[in-house]
Amino acid sequence: MANAASIEINQVSKVFPGKGQSAGWRALDDATFRVDPGEFVCILGPSGCGKSTLLNILSGLDDQFEGTASIHGRPVGKRNYDAARIAYVFQEPRLMPWRTVRANIEFALSAANVSSSQWKERIDRVLALVELSDFGDFYPLQLSGGMQQRASIARAFAIEPEVLLMDEPFSALDELTARRLRQQLLTIWGTFRSTVLFVTHNAFEATFLSDRILMMTKGPGGKFCDEIDLRELARPRSYEDVRVFETSRTVVERLVSHIGSLDEH
């Protein structure tokens, strides 16, 4: 018998209703995939193909869709948050500006029903992992954009999530900062071994981070069209490794073969 999937999407379609006589926007069309426990999987596709919509469905933020979606074998939805410990890292940090970094993480721990006796140890641990040990008492607006995103990643891992959803978390950062955060993310993932579903439109980022890449066609009606297995690309990975660069070129070529010229997107 096959091992149970951490994440399973089966024939999921999503239409956002239009106004007046408009037929609406079909964001997803018959999407199907699974992610096994402990995998790091990237969803790669152009803007508007439904990547973020999938994460919203899996997180329970959107429960209006056709098909089935489950985490650890239990249907997702607003009323089923106990299916697993799920953390969600967005494109922007979404830290509460009136709370310090430490207080932001405490809020997440409280929401996840983690005993307060564990808070200090967990917070100290994750702040050290993202190199923010000296900034726990700072407020978000006192930090750079990269530091704020590191704080949001620390907040996500503090609850020791079984499943981590990440929606282009480094897209707003300069490339040097993004490179550093990708490496830190892999270090933290190696510590916790959470199942990660990471959305991006950056082929190199997907190649550097993931065990597998799931490609999507352009919208409307984004579909999964290809899969690239990267598990033979040894970890830890280096930005200087020519194999990573060459593999990312292959990923780009495969993506272009499905969606057309990148200049169109």
Question: How would you explain this protein's 3D organization?
Answer:
Helices cover 33% and strands 23% of the residues. The protein is α/β, with parallel strands linked by helices and 265 residues long. It is globular. The model has no long low-confidence stretch (mean pLDDT 90). It has helices spanning 51-59, 101-111, 119-129, 145-158, 175-192, 203-209, 242-259, and strands at residues 7-16, 25-35, 40-44, 66-71, 74-75, 86-89, 163-167, 195-200, 212-216, 224-229. α5 (175-192) links the parallel β7 (163-167) and β8. α3 (119-129) packs across α4, α4 (145-158) packs parallel to α5 and α6 packs across α7. It is built from seven helices and ten strands. It has a six-stranded mixed sheet with strand order 6-7-8-3-9-10, with helices on both faces. 36% of the residues are buried.
